[in-house]
Amino acid sequence: MDRAQKEKVVEELGQIFASSGVVVVAHYEGMTVAQMQDLRSRMREAGGSVRVAKNTLAKIALEGKPCESMGKLLTGMTVLAFSEDPVAAAKVSVDYAKANDKFAILGGAMGTEALDPAGVKTVAAMPSREELIAQIASCIGAPASNIAGAIGAPASNIAGILKTLEEREAA
Predict the structure, then answer these.
(1) Chain centroid, CA 23 distance in Å
(2) CA 124 to CA 21: how far, in whole Å?
(3) What is the end-to-end Cα distance of the chain in Å, rounded?
(4) Strands 113-115, 78-83: parallel, antiparallel or unpaired by DSSP?
(5) Closest by alpha carbon to 115, among 52, 60, 55, 66?
(6) HAMAP family given for it (predicted)?
């Protein structure tokens, strides 16, 4: 890898660290190619990505970024899992670590906050962006449906009373 290629990798990693909602660092020593491809496909389905990079280049890319404290995690065979959604990469990583003992989560970063393995698990337990949007939409929609029901209730009550009166007159 020549200097120009290294500079390009550092620039790409810098963009990843700056724009990602969460970055998870894990060891992947002993994983097969098929296992790594499985991890990549799961991460892609969730809207994230997986990147293997030289630790020295990743540390250079971290300089001046909000998540710079994560640099101490970059030792050994590390893989970076990241996503714009602050929860997606953490969820996939934690789920994958449960199924594969060769994938060990070291920690990560969420914005300026450095995360230890327990912190990554806590982030993974949070609802995703889509789930939060659905919850907010249901909270906003519930009062409107209650109002519509309250407005429609007198009309249905009046209709019931008129029907009862009509039946009495007919009898």
Answers:
(1) 10
(2) 12
(3) 97
(4) unpaired
(5) 66
(6) Ribosomal_uL10
pTM: 0.72
Do the Cβ atoms of 25 and 108 come closer than 8 Å?
A: yes
CA distances from 35 to 26, 38, 126 (A): 14, 5, 26
Express each pLDDT in 92-145 by its tens digit.
Answer: 999 999 999 999 999 998 888 888 999 899 888 887 777 778 878 777 766 666
Who's near 103: CB < 8 A, 6+ residues apart?
26, 27, 28, 31, 35, 39, 93, 96, 97
> Is the separation of the CB atoms in 100 and 31 below 8 Å?
yes
Residue scoring higher pLDDT (144 or 35): 35
Within its chain, how far is the Cα of 31 from the centroid?
A: 24
What is the token pair recorded at 161?
Answer: 């009373």
